[in-house]
Every structure is written in C-alpha cells, then in structure tokens.
Amino acid sequence: MALAQPKITATEERLSALRLPESGVWLARARGAAQDRVRTMGLPAARDEYWKFTPPGTLVQPEAPQAAVFRHDEAPVFDGIERLKIVFVDGVFDAAASDPLEGEGLQIERLADVAAQDIHWARDLYGVLETRGQTPVDRPLAALNTAYASDGILIRVTGHVSKPVSLIYHHESTSSDAILHHVMKVEEGASLTLLENGPAAARFNKVMEVDVADSAAFHHVRAQGRDHERRAATHIFARLGRESTFKSFTLTVNGKMTRNECVIELTGDDAVAHVAGAALGDGDFHGDDTVFVTHDAVNCESRQVFKKVLRNGATGVFQGKILVKPGAQQTDGYQISQSLLLDGDSQFLAKPELEIYADDVACSHGSTSGAIDEDALFYLRARGIPGNVATDLLTLAFLAQAVDEIEDETLRTEMAARLEGWLSRRSG
Amino acid sequence: MLEIKGLNVKLEEEDKQILKGVDLSVEAGTVHAIMGPNGSGKSTLSYVLSGRDGYVVTEGSATLEGHDLLDLEPEERAAIGLFLAFQYPVEIPGVGNMTFLRTAVNAQRKARGLEEMNATEFLKLIRQKAKELQIDADMLKRPVNVGFSGGEKKRNEILQMAMLEPKMCILDETDSGLDVDAMKLVADGVNALRGAGRGFLVITHYQRLLNHIQPDVVHIMSDGRIVKSGGPELALEVEENGYGDILSEVA
Ligand SMILES: Nc1ncnc2c1ncn2[C@@H]1O[C@H](COP(=O)(O)OP(=O)(O)O)[C@@H](O)[C@H]1O
Ligand SMILES: [Mg+2]
C-alpha cells in the first residue's frame, strides 16, 4: 500500500536531518537495508493504529525538542553494585568514565570501533532481529535506529561472567538527539546480567537486539532516568532458544514521553520470558509499554507484568500481545497491566490482546485501572499511620508485584528503594 | 475516658439517619458492652468514633480524655489512644503484616513525641505478643490479613491492639466467626490489657464473649439509640429471652 503523502513528507524530513554513518561492508549493508525499510513503512504518524494512545510527533520530528537537564543529589542507580561500567554522555561514548571493555567470559566492543570492518559476528544479528520484529507490526523507529545509530555496544557472552555489565546514560545537553544500537549474543549455556540507567539525552532512540541461545540466560534491569523533560523511544528485540531464559524489568519515573517496545520471540522449546515494568508519572508524563510476545515453540512460558502509578494529569499506556503460533502447544502465557490513578486527572489506556492458533495452551490477561482502596487506607490510618504515609505504603504495595519479578534480591531492593524515594519526595 | 453525648449521625451519600442520639460514658478502667440486633448502628458508632469517611455528624459530641474526637483525623485519634478492632479486618495485599505494625507503632510513637522503636526491640516485643495469641511467624510475614482465616484475622486485630497499647479499645464483634478456643485466646488477650486505666467498649451480638470478658456495664442498642443499660445480668437476659422482650419493654 502506498504511503500517504504527509507521512512520506514527515519521513523524508526526518531522514534529511540524519546522515548514514560511514561503515564497512557488513554494517553498510544493514544500514542501507534499514533505511529502505524506513522509507517503505514511513515513520509513525498520529493516525496509525499502533500509535493511537501515544502521539509520535515529538519522537519523529527532525529536531529533538529541548529538554532541561535535571540536577539532583540522589545517589546514582546501581551505585553500590559491582559491575562493568560503560558510560555514554548524550549518546557519545565516554572512554575516561568507562571501565576497559573487557571481562571474564565476555567479548565487548563498540559499534563505532568495528563499523569499518568488512565482517563481524554481529552481522548475523544487527538489524536481523529488528527485521524479524517488523512482522506483523511495523516498528519504523527501530529501523531508523538500525540505519542511523551512531554507536552502541556489542557483547558476546561465551562463558562464565563475573559481574553485570552496566550501561550508564548521562544527559548533559538540552538538545541532544542520541541514537544507540546494542547487540547482545548470549551463547549456549552462558548468562549475562545487563543494567541500564540514566536519561541518555533530550531525545533517545535505542534498540537492543538480544539473542539468547539454548540454555542461556539474559537478565536485564533498567531505570530510565529522572529528567522530567526527556523523551525516549526504545526497542528490545529478543530471540530465545531452547530452555533459555529472558527476564527484563524497567523502572520508568518521570520523562515527558517514553515509549518502550519489547518484542520477544520464543523459538526453542521450554524457554521462559518475563518482562515487567513499574512506572511513576506525575504531571507532564506519558509512559507507554508496548509488548509483543510470540510463542513459536512447545512448552514455553511468558509473563508480562506492568504497573503504573499516575497523578496530576499523567498518562499511562499499555499495549500487550501474546501471539501463539500453530504448534506452540503447552504455552503458558500471562499478562497483567494495572494502573493506580491517584487523582481524577490522570488516565490509563490499555489494549491487551491474545491471538492463539494452538489448542493446548493456557493464556490469561487482565487489565485494571483504579484508585487507592479507601477501606485499606482507613484501616492503616486507624492504626495511626498518617494519610500520606499510608498512601505511599499502598502505592508501593501496588507496584510490588512488578518489582518482585526481578530475580536478584539486590537489584530488587534497589528498584524498590528508588520507588520509595520517588514517593517520599512527593508526599506532603 | 470516652464521653459520647447526643450523637446523631447520618450517611453522607443518602439522607438516612443511623444514630439518633447516643449517650455513653466509659470511665477509665472499665469494660462496657454494647449489644443489639443487626442493623441497630453498633458498627456505625465504632466507625464514626474512629473517623471513617461517609458519615455526617449532625448533632452531639464525642471526646476522649477531653479531646474532641470528631475534629481529628483517624491517625490523630489513634495517636491519642483510640483503637478499633474491626468487625471486618481489611486485607492489604503487598503490605507485610510486620512492616505494617512497625510503621503503625512508630507513627504513633512519633506523634506522641517518643523515639522510634528500633528493629530489634520491635521484633522482640512482637514475637512475645504473637506467641501469646498463638500467631506464628508465617502470619507475621504474610501481607496484612491476606489469606487469613476469620479467626486469624480477629487474633491479628488483638495483636495490633497489644502492640499499640491504646487507652480506649473498641472491639466490634471480635467474637464473630470464632470457635471456642479462638474466643478464649482473644478474651485472654483483651483481659491482659484490662486495668491500667484502659477503657473498653465491647460490641457483640451474642452474650458468649461476655462470659470470657466480664463487662462492668451492658448497654442495649436499638435503632440508633441506647435503649437500656445495666449490669452483666442484662446480657444474660438477652441470652435467655432474645432482644424482643427488652425492646418491647422500652418501646
Ligand atoms: N455506608 C452505608 N451505606 C448504607 N447503609 C449503611 C451504611 N452504613 C450503615 N448503614 C446502615 O445503617 C444501619 C446500621 O448499620 P450498622 O452500624 O452496621 O449496624 P450493626 O453494626 O449494629 O449491625 C443499617 O441499617 C445499615 O444498613
Ligand atoms: Mg456491625
């Protein structure tokens, strides 16, 4: 189908503000093909079905909207945790602030460093998982990323890894427009924990492709940074092999605009994929979690657990789909998305979907939106707990189900503490 | 201790009068019981005293040791020593029973200008009190009242009371849904707190709880009023003849 003229115009305007980075053969091919995909799909527009709850305009316009840098004296997320640090400032790699790109069981490289090569292992994944994720729904911002990413981290995990890899994204410029593309290849039987934190840029477009081989495991915990004016469109494309595990948790606090897409394909039998998120929005906040899980193997389990707390006119969005392909028997699919509206001005828009082509499956989904439970609030207050403290307790309890999806206790405690901090800074 | 005068209460949402002039005075160190048929307004009285939304006091007053209760937030009423053991304890998923109790104890201490109780002190105290009520460690760890049986919920109310050491305790049908053994545990918990200048208002539908918690005064409530007051023998009269005789006698 031919694209509508306004869409073509908007897409070309955006592309003309970008330049394809110089690349060697393997990457140039991937970039060129991605550029073609962008032109074929066109960038998201307000009338697109997949963007009906989230206005894509500011994510698509040629210039990044200004975003003030938010200064605060809170300790950085993951501060006390032993990890391999890789730092980007407004999307630019900061060598001085980063640890050497090496670690036990790991092969770590920067995309920019290997871009000029003619061949690289990442060729089999870069833009490849993204392309797979374009069916059946277009994700043009991800294709744009594949074409134009200025840098990124390529990690190949071959053996035992002694500590998590931590990507830290600072935001220093009010007009930065960062595009990063990471590739993670976790080889058979290996496992990696990846941490991400920080606002990254005024506008951030990030893609992460994750290939989890047979019996491998990938754990991911990220905190998106407290800058109120930042915007972000992120994509995770994960492909899971037999008996593999993929677990991802995202904490989204503040930010004018966040669209997190997570596209998971279970291709090997007995694999497990969990994706969860806790979001806190106060005022000018729009947080969208869009998840698409495809079961294409036998006896796989998937869970989606998303919780949002919204107040003062904040908007939360959840679009979640479980697709069970023919033959994907014994699928266990679960999805829950809930919002807690702390006042009448906020809104939660949800579209949960199941599409099932196998007969022996157990899939459930639920979506709710509600206020604080008045009976519970009164009960706590009747025991002497002040109203604001009681509200915070109930809010944390509401979010706990999502936070509890984090397997590692230290990381779970860290995320819970961040939520508590956010609430206590706001309670009267 | 607790002084209620001419209390008239209607619902906020509809024009329905529930309490129609309640007068009641509970002196320090005494146990008063309120009995009465279902729907007579007993729970409403307990909610209004503890500050639940949804009711409007149209007339009358309620004070605790001279403090105007009706002017205070629920947490302030708790901090000056009022405690309500709920007829229907609320389940709170995601909030651990222990966290809840510690937050409550320390909030009240803070409101009274006392130092917070540290974790070790608190643990020691709660273990001891829980043991007396045969509440196991698992119940302390679980979310507040979630998955508790009826009896466990009621014992959990008494545990909270024991930890908070209020001055004025209102027990709303704490006996309902309890078997004999559980009732004995609850009664022992209450009796352990008797004296020390504490006041009790024990709301019950049946006389049997009063065998275990001997009241000083018994009131009969009907249609939003206290229609008759007397000694413990009044409860026995209800037990034998039901409410019918008493109500027709005062009508
Ligand atoms: N929130 C409410 N909405 C409607 N009716 C109520 C409400 N609270 C109390 N009532 C009514 O008030 C009366 C007294 O109820 P309640 O105080 O629960 O009595 P008791 O505890 O003595 O059984 C009943 O008729 C009850 O239906
Ligand atoms: Mg009642």
From TrEMBL, chain A:
InterPro entries: Fe-S_cluster_assembly_SufBD (IPR055346), SUF_FeS_clus_asmbl_SufBD_core (IPR000825), SUF_FeS_clus_asmbl_SufBD_sf (IPR037284), SUF_FeS_clus_asmbl_SufD (IPR011542). Residues 176-398 form the SUF system FeS cluster assembly SufBD core domain. One of its GO terms (biological process) is iron-sulfur cluster assembly. Signal peptide: none annotated. This is Fe-S cluster assembly protein SufD. It comes from Salinihabitans flavidus.
UniProtKB/TrEMBL annotation, chain B:
Pfam families: ABC_tran (PF00005). Keywords: ATP-binding, Nucleotide-binding. GO terms for molecular function: ATP binding; ATP hydrolysis activity. InterPro entries: AAA+_ATPase (IPR003593), ABC_transporter-like_ATP-bd (IPR003439), ABC_transporter-like_CS (IPR017871), FeS-cluster_ATPase_SufC (IPR010230), P-loop_NTPase (IPR027417). CDD domains: ABC_FeS_Assembly. The keyword Lipid biosynthesis does not apply. Residues 4-248 form the ABC transporter domain. Belongs to the ABC transporter superfamily. Ycf16 family. PANTHER family: ABC TRANSPORTER I FAMILY MEMBER 6, CHLOROPLASTIC. This is Fe-S cluster assembly ATP-binding protein.
